[in-house]
Design goal:
- By secondary structure, the protein is an alpha/beta fold.
- It folds into 2 domains: about 190 residues, 3-Layer(aba) Sandwich (Rossmann fold); about 100 residues, K homology (KH) domain (GMP Synthetase, Chain A, domain 3, 2-Layer Sandwich).
- Helices cover about 35% and strands about 20% of the residues.
- It has 10 helices and 9 strands.
- The protein has a 6-stranded mixed beta sheet, sandwiched between helices. A 3-stranded mixed beta sheet has the order 7-8-9.
- The longest helix is centred in the last third of the chain and has 18 residues.
- It starts with a helix and ends in a 6-residue tail after the last helix.
- The structure holds guanosine-5'-triphosphate (GTP) and magnesium ion (MG).
- Guanosine-5'-triphosphate binds next to helix 2.
Length: about 325
Amino acid sequence: MTEQLIENFFGGGTQAVDVSNYRCGFVAIVGRPNVGKSTLLNHLLGQKLSITSRKPQTTRHKILGIVTQDKVQAIYVDTPGMHKREPRAINRYMNKAAQSALKDVDLVLFVVDAMKWTPDDDLVLEKLEHTDTPVLLVLNKVDTIDDKAVLLPYLEELNKKRHFSEVIPLSALRGHNLPQLHEVVSRYLPFAPPLYGEDQITDRSQRFLAAEVIREKIMRQLGDEIPYDLTVQIESFKLDGRMYRIDATILVERDGQKAIVIGEGGQKLKTIGQAARVDMEKMFDSKVMLTVWVKVKGGWSDDERALKSLGYGDI
Ligand SMILES: Nc1nc2c(ncn2[C@@H]2O[C@H](COP(=O)(O)OP(=O)(O)OP(=O)(O)O)[C@@H](O)[C@H]2O)c(=O)[nH]1
Ligand SMILES: [Mg+2]
């Protein structure tokens, strides 16, 4: 401990942390699309960070959510939902990103829907076969179940599928059993000093978060097909006095999609932009002036090079 305290003086560290008693580690949140992984991350963090929607395949990138307390720093890693159908390069990127999160973590949270098991859940189980890391089974959306009696046989079935270190039924959306989950998670983290400063909640830039918020509003505003064919690029991100000026472009695959995103008389795009701005102002705690354009860039989602240039490169 003395060594660490001295290190804190001379090694650039600012916190005097009692490492002999401090726990810090990485926790991967994995599961098929739409089970509530990002909702769980946001509610563990106590603020919105990762985008969520009713549609599967909302999350496309890994994103860290860092929860720092007196004696523990849990670094949660939200991941894209793993899925079997891989029609395009972007789907392969998402699956790779999710799988890569299983490496070098101290704990895995395998999130499933409390009542619905699908072939994609089996796919996640297969990927978990290759990990030596403890896996906790998180049974989410328990609030959707009226009769508790149906839960027990389902749990029994799940327990036959593999060994889980713990099974935790919860509701990410309603916040039920989340403190209990965090408590259990903390017990699995190794003794180590915190890796991030106490104010840091993520590894992602404001630029990244701004693009994601716009994508979330599109996912929520548009019908079923289009959101998967589009991405958002931040062209410019500037702090002007106390206001952020942000210019963004929504890239779609085809002309017809551009018309749908813009909507009658530009109404759809206006709604998307307004909703995104409101969220950004909360996230950045500042006024935001947001301008959003729509452009056609055919083939971006199935072109490895285009994907890289659009930020889908590093896993
Ligand atoms: N009723 C209920 N709905 C939930 C709960 N947790 C999440 N949801 C809803 O489930 C949907 C999917 O949530 P997300 O958090 O986006 O799911 P995800 O697993 O991150 O999905 P991908 O990013 O596509 O892999 C959203 O409509 C959430 O509001 C819960 O505890 N109860
Ligand atoms: Mg998600």
